[in-house]
Amino acid sequence: MDVFISGPITGLPERNWKAFAFAESFLIRRGHKPRNPHSICKYMRADATHDEYMTVCLDALGECQAIYMLPGWEQSKGARMEYREATERGMCIWYAAEETV
Question: pTM of this prediction?
Fold first, then answer.
């Protein structure tokens, strides 16, 4: 199953890279095809806006059947947008436990 990883990035050390990488590895080990925003957006311009990042991420989310919410997603504007989109699409929504990332 294609699974989009969603969580806080902006303002966090290393843009929360380790939590996304761990989630990606976790999902692969369970036979899924994760979509990691860090990988999806790595070639975007350095001065890209939040809206430009969200356009790319929401497009990738639209190709998935599930979303995997990382701890702290509730405080992230982008993750809340992704959650809302996943809910509207009737996608499977999974939540990472705090101690697993």
Answer: 0.93
20-51 pLDDT, tens digit per residue, is 999 999 999 999 999 999 999 999 998 999 99
Q: Hey, is 42 helix, strand or coil?
A: coil
CA 55, 86, 97, 2 torsion: positive or negative?
negative
Write out pLDDT tens, residues 9-23. 888 788 888 999 999
Residues contacting 89, CB < 8 A, separation 6+: 62
Query: CA 22, CA 99: separation in Å to the nearest integer?
Result: 12
Residue with tokens 């509207």: 88
Q: Which residues contact 61 (CB under 8 A, 6 or more apart)?
A: 4, 6, 35, 67, 82, 85, 86
